Amino acid sequence: MIFEPTYRVKRVWGISPKALQSRGITTVLADLDNTLVAWNRPEGDRDFFDWHAKLQQAKINLIVVSNNSTARVKRAVTALGVPFESWSWKPLPRGIKKTLRDFDLTKDEVIMVGDQITTDIIASNLAGVRSVLVQPLTQTDGLPTRINRQIAKIITGHKEIHWEDDLIDPK
Ligand SMILES: [Mg+2]
């Protein structure tokens, strides 16, 4: 289903290198705002840097795939030290597909992580890559995001969502 993520995990830094490696994932594609950084802490979180260091040790790459402008994404990722694709037009799959081409990756070796069903998860499903829905780092942000959340609530039918700490395959 187009709105359905492959996995649901509380925080991006809960995703362990081991869980990624055992699923054949070499590269994590990640949304920026509210997934990797909170809007009110644009310099990044300590948890992020610890997690990124663990990925690097395990030789797993991280690429930011954001709908934001190049200037905005560049500003944010300079502090984080990760490559990026900007203007990715999620929920369209083109940004993810362009990332696969630009970084010479196959669909099967990546996973897309994001906090929005209406952009990140739909784009992943349309691009044919596995996805992880995470809880947004902050609840208070711009109007478009709040509208997206309302749409997401309608899509999920207000169901109680169970969030895991790491990638867990459904039984
Ligand atoms: Mg986001």
TrEMBL record:
InterPro entries: HAD-like_sf, HAD-SF_hydro_IIIA, HAD_2, HAD_sf, PGPP1/Gep4. One of its GO terms (molecular function) is phosphatidylglycerophosphatase activity. Keywords: Hydrolase. CDD domains: HAD_BsYqeG-like. It holds the Pfam family HAD_2. This is HydrolaseHAD subfamily IIIA. It comes from Oenococcus kitaharae DSM 17330. The lineage of its organism: Bacteria, Bacillati, Bacillota, Bacilli, Lactobacillales.
